[in-house]
Specification:
There is one protein chain. By secondary structure, this protein is of the alpha+beta class. The protein folds into three domains: 167 residues, 2-Layer Sandwich (Double Stranded RNA Binding Domain), CATH 3.30.160.110; 140 residues; 57 residues. 56% of the residues lie in helices and 14% in strands. The protein has seven helices and eight strands. Helix 4 packs antiparallel against helix 5, helix 5 packs antiparallel against helix 6 and helix 6 runs antiparallel to helix 7. The longest helix is centred in the last third of the chain and has 95 residues.
Length: 436
């Protein structure tokens, strides 16, 4: 590419491109047996999972592939290990080639080839264990597996991969703790065989992880029923006339219901979302099998649709019910808050009207007091004028005190009235105005 040295790559370019090539399929040659284990380890144990996988490589005398962080393949023709780290689980697929006894393809587990101490120390708990046997068609019993290998009444089977293989499984956990999957190779290429085995183990893994949401949904049902009954009681009470105290109590209870519903949603939102994602992966992996009906057997897709499908619809129904309950509680709370707000506005309106009446009464009382004040002040001032006139008369001045007081009365009244009015206006100007 011309001028390549002039271009600067985004720091994540190669990492993002490498994701398309990550986790390649194993290449398998028939006959082969595989033991698959998936451990539920959570989202925070990635480093512990990787170190444990590195320990297995070391105990088997195999080199760890470079700087592998969440995927690795190591081993030899005798035992090959495929390790994967996912969001909440870690999986190991162990492949062993060579001769396989067609009469007892699941007689010995490939897990017998790994150290028991390492197996006992695996982080997390087993969520899926599967044994897969891939045989040549001539090694298969006529008409498919017998009742000693699989539970025939519940066996699902199909021709897959464009007719290149036949798959049989009963999805039953056997006494050894593993689900059995039997594959007849009608012409699988090595990489095609690896893809098929991985898809089959992924169907079992994602199916089981999706069913964890079903357990949550089933346990949540009674609690949702109780909360729905409580909400129905509260909404019925809201249709009846109530006092502000009763409305406030009802609103408090609705708030508690809303908090509990939100807590339920927070506790289970991840599990329900994961269930939807895992179900989509199961549907996708079944579609990738390209199943064709095999004799009288039900296909894997049909089996899952009859057994697994209803469980997933139950999860969706409970998740929808939970969301609807939260919406109903929110609507009821909004309606009751509106009712309480209206009642408060009415109380405020009555209070304002009462305050207006008191203000009017105070104004009239103030005017009455002002009138009495004018009379009282004028009375004292006229009395002073009368005493002053008497004093002047006693001093020999030709003054009639009573006449002087009578003539001064109108002037005194007018002066006092104007003085009181001026004082009231001055006080009104000094009163602070409420903020806009």
């Amino acid at each position: 590419m011309p001028h390549r040295d002039l271009l600067i790559d985004h720091p994540d370019r190669h990492r993002l491109n490498d994701e398309l090539h990550a986790r390649p399929f194993a290449q398998l040659r028939t006959p082969v047996r595989a033991s698959y284990l998936a451990f539920l380890t959570g989202e925070t144990s990635a480093e512990a999972d990787r170190l444990h996988a590195m320990r297995l490589a070391d105990e088997l005398g195999q080199a760890w592939p470079g700087d592998a962080r969440d995927f690795a393949i190591f081993g030899d023709d005798q035992l090959r290990v495929r390790w994967e780290r996912h969001t909440e689980f870690t999986s190991y697929t162990l492949f062993s080639g060579g001769m396989v006894d067609p009469s007892a393809p699941f007689g010995d587990s490939v897990l017998d080839q790994v150290p028991e101490a390492w197996l006992a120390a695996c982080p997390g708990r087993v969520i899926v264990a599967t044994q897969v046997a891939v045989l040549a068609p001539e090694a298969m019993p006529d008409g498919g597996p017998d009742g000693q290998l699989l539970e025939l009444e519940n066996t699902a089977a199909a021709r897959v991969s464009g007719g290149a293989a036949s798959v049989y499984t009963d999805f039953r956990i056997r006494p050894d703790g593993a689900v059995r999957i039997l594959v007849a190779d009608h012409g699988l290429k090595p990489r095609q065989a690896g893809r098929l085995v991985q898809r089959l183990t992924e169907i079992e893994t994602y199916r089981t992880l999706a069913m964890m949401g079903f357990s949550e949904a089933r346990s949540l049902g009674p609690r949702l029923s109780y909360l729905e009954r409580e909400l129905a009681k509260l909404t019925t009470a809201m249709t009846q006339p109530g006092s502000p105290e009763v409305d406030r109590d009802t609103l408090t209870r609705l708030t508690e219901l809303a908090a509990e519903v939100e807590q339920i949603a927070a506790d289970r939102s991840y599990r329900f979302a994961a269930t939807r994602a895992y179900r989509a992966l199961v549907d996708r992996r079944v579609e990738e099998l390209r199943e064709q009906r095999l004799a009288e057997w039900q296909t894997i897709g049909e089996f899952l649709d009859r057994r697994f499908g209803p469980a997933m619809r139950t999860v969706e129904a409970v998740a929808s019910r939970q969301t609807q309950l939260a919406d109903r509680v929110q609507r009821a709370s909004t309606l009751l808050r509106t009712r309480v707000d209206v009642a408060l506005e009415q109380q405020n309106q009555h209070l304002l009207q009462s305050m207006d009446r008191r203000a009017d009464a105070q104004l009239r009382l103030q005017q009455t007091v002002e009138g009495l004040s004018v009379v009282a002040i004028s009375y004292y001032l006229v009395g002073l004028i009368l005493y002053l006139g008497k004093a002047a008369k006693a001093a020999g001045l030709p003054i009639d005190p009573e006449l002087a007081a009578g003539l001064a009365l109108p002037l005194v009244l007018l002066s006092v009235w104007r003085g009181v009015k001026h004082l009231r206006e001055a006080l009104s100007r000094e009163e602070p105005h409420p903020p806009a």
